[in-house]
Amino acid sequence: MDSKQLFENIKRKKSFLCIGLDTDITKVPRIVLEAEYPLFEFNKKIIDATADLTVAYKPNIAFYESLGAAGWINLELTANYIRENHPDIFLIADAKRGDIGNTSKMYAKAFYEKNDFHSITVSPYMGEDSVTPFLSYPDKWVILLALTSNTGASDFQMMKEEGTNKRLFEKVIENSTKWGNVNNLMYVVGATKAEMLADIRKIIPKHFLLIPGVGAQGGSLEEVVKYGMNKQCGLIVNSSRAIIYADCTDRFAFVAREQAFLIQQEMQGLLKKHKLI
Amino acid sequence: MDSKQLFENIKRKKSFLCIGLDTDITKVPRIVLEAEYPLFEFNKKIIDATADLTVAYKPNIAFYESLGAAGWINLELTANYIRENHPDIFLIADAKRGDIGNTSKMYAKAFYEKNDFHSITVSPYMGEDSVTPFLSYPDKWVILLALTSNTGASDFQMMKEEGTNKRLFEKVIENSTKWGNVNNLMYVVGATKAEMLADIRKIIPKHFLLIPGVGAQGGSLEEVVKYGMNKQCGLIVNSSRAIIYADCTDRFAFVAREQAFLIQQEMQGLLKKHKLI
To answer: Among A77, A266, B72, B226, whose CB has the most other CB atoms within 10 angstroms?
Structure first.
């Protein structure tokens, strides 16, 4: 899936929503715990209820890994289910991986060969050769951490470089644009820093951005669009907890759909306002 | 295991070796492929042959993850085997994880609760709240990436801060010393940058350092000791491929032992030279 196809999907669905599958065994309704693969069971119901409202799903790998091998089976079932039943969905492994070249190659195998994710989130700390193994697959994407939504983002990402006055996250974006292109590289930019999107758009006007932090983490969708939207939308906005845990009864999938629908409606309005649909 | 116990083990074994279990299904001898859990089978034989020569084992999680859930079973069997049969071994999950607080908490569960690793390697890019969830477990360690051994290390880790003239890896070390202490925090410093160990020792004279990059990646043990050793040794030096893939026949475990023995002998000499044993 390239950036053009992604934009086509956004226009068709009138949505640039990504639903984060941060599926926590301690938070899912009791009814799914009876299933052999409870995280998958929960995800399947969420997916069936929301797939027409969202352009992407983003399983958060930590939540599966916390259950060990059993968690990985639930993850694999989820990824397969999405790829088989919803081929238009952009599938993100939120894994924050990154290591020396021969090791990143193994992580790429895990998410691009053993599973068929479209993309993986990668940490830039170890530099170019830790990122490029993920870019060597045709039609696969790296979503590189630039400016994250957590408080610790200010510890190092905002550090200014001597001489250039660039902040680390800006340097990460600038350097990495040479490693990939608008069809295989996007960036994580937290919604809690919406005004910084204007600075980022000066460096990368055309790249897609994955925006976490709307909802539970406090970011505003309108602000994100104001500073971050481009002519191809250029935004995928994630919401996890506010959708998937909106209700904890047997009706959870219906209520998740309602929440996703509210966000999709807001997105539709914003896409119209910016004349993209 | 605290730093004092770690030093006791180093003195008793006359070794500060860590053996990296970068166990690659395409590189293991044919004989282990017949086993139900081939990576575990390989590891078990390597561990049985080398456990008296090493103070730590470091499974590289990517190599297991590349096989999906099946790989995770091999990883869990390996971790359990080490903890049950060699309780004096410091067990490192080389995972390079790190995410927003609630997600790092899940990774901590994966490696400290679901499995019983002593430590995990963590990427500092997302700052304090991405690291501290791993430090909230008593007797568990974070091994924070500071200066890595790959070529990409120069992309961002060497960036100098305006005003202070500090490099990013120095700022990472300085800031993070406030998050933990010498008994739950150590740092990754690549052996390929041995002379930089002198600068690092000015900031953290007492912390343990995990040194990858000796052997296959080109670093020299003598240089590392010259610039990095302290009164409690303060070094754990990793070797992976040079030991575990020294031979690809049925005799692989014996030859791995020979290679580990050669390194242990060199380490014994260096510990004596520095009057630590």
So the answer is: B72
